[in-house]
Design brief:
By secondary structure, the protein is of the alpha+beta class. Helices cover 30% and strands 29% of the residues.
Length: 79
């Protein structure tokens, strides 16, 4: 189990704001911190994990929640 440092709910956001909000949240964290991102919809589900990986962060898990949204855990890598 990963200890979550911060939770970001972007279930009401649309692309490209979904990743902009995620990126800003990651920038505010220390290296190694875990960001829990709650998201909804096909585009964010595809784009947010991909963009995080492209920027060098680790995707720890992605799971479907009971309400139809998804829970994504990211670990901040690099300074």
């Amino acid at each position: 189990m990963h200890e979550v440092t911060r939770t970001l709910d972007i279930t009401r956001e649309v692309c490209p704001m979904t990743y902009v909000r995620t990126k800003l949240a990651l920038e505010a964290l220390e290296e190694g911190a875990v960001l829990e991102v709650l998201l909804r919809g096909e585009e964010p589900l595809k784009n947010v994990p991909r963009n995080a990986r492209e920027e060098g962060h680790a995707v720890l898990s992605l799971e479907l929640r009971d309400d139809g949204s998804h829970r994504l855990l990211l670990r901040k890598q690099g300074g």
